[in-house]
Amino acid sequence: MAAVSSAHQQVLDHLASGDFYSAHQKARTTATRLLAPPRRNPLPVGTVLPYDKKAQEAAELLWDAARKLLENGQTGSGVDLGVMLVEDVWTAREVGCGKDERAKLIQLIALTGPAGAWRKTLTDAIFAWSAKTGSGAAGDMEIHQYLGETFFKEGDYHQASLHLLVCPSQDAAQTLANVMFEWSKLDPENECGVGRYAARGTLSYLESSFILAARTFLSHFLALVLAAYPTLRVVSFPYPPPSSPLATSTSAPPSGDEIVVTKLASLNFLQLAVRDVQAGVGEAVEKVKVGNEWRAQRGAGTKVWQSLVGKYERQVPWMRAPEVREGLTALGEIHFGLKPQRAGNPLMDMMASMFGGGGMGGR
């Protein structure tokens, strides 16, 4: 271990003697002193101080003390120093979430454990910091993935899904499939209810434009479902079918792709929805007759999407729920440029009808 300062050593001595209160206070006051701006030649207000030797010393002290306090069951004190590290050092000095920072934080999260609200206090600070330093709008994705896997092991499927849904990696998508499948086993509808759990992962990934993650999730989820409930399978066929003009299109999905038709309309819809979103508004192909010959025409993705949603909304009851319809409308706007219908103005509609004009709803 590298030599430490005398102040750092005092913190270690307090910890070794079991005087955790003094260790916590000494770590805090020493870090505050190290992070203080220069008294001579003060910098202009708003200037970001550098991540210099003193700031790095403060960071190492806070992390080491937080880790050892957590190892000794002093969760509140350990988390307090962890938050100080994130907010007063890395956020204030605009330090990014690199490999070393991430590894240290994951260790602190692991030591904090699930009891109480301490882990959330720490991770809220971590995600607020990492979102500001270019690690993703929701915070560092690798830490989200670690938390998702942790919550899954703890049996908290809801929290696990929230963290995994912001991660577009294949590993995160496969873990999410495991999460949603295990969660679906608790549903009183048994295999008849799995479509809702598939939709939570698939549609949420698509809304974030994580198309490959959506495909990975759904493929893995389907494999789990069909292994557990083999009677749900009806037939599978290559996609796109060889006779389809999309099969020879440069935008065709990779060879080896297939659609598995099941007895659940919801699972069939989700598979087709992912393919249509992947093809996009300007890439889907349909055959149109021009003179005496059939030609491939691009730009049919929008029409396919509208047809899919319209057809399966009639077959799948939960797709008619307001929140699901809102999500499908958002997908249509994001991926196909479909503008949602503007709600009519009841007062204007009434006035128009009174004076012989048409209602304004739906324009």
UniProtKB/TrEMBL annotation:
<protein>
    <submittedName>
        <fullName>Cytoplasmic protein</fullName>
    </submittedName>
</protein>
<dbReference type="GO" id="GO:0045048">
    <property type="term" value="P:protein insertion into ER membrane"/>
</dbReference>
<dbReference type="InterPro" id="IPR011990">
    <property type="entry name" value="TPR-like_helical_dom_sf"/>
</dbReference>
<dbReference type="Pfam" id="PF04190">
    <property type="entry name" value="GET4"/>
</dbReference>
<dbReference type="GO" id="GO:0005829">
    <property type="term" value="C:cytosol"/>
</dbReference>
<comment type="similarity">
    <text>Belongs to the GET4 family.</text>
</comment>
<dbReference type="InterPro" id="IPR007317">
    <property type="entry name" value="GET4"/>
</dbReference>
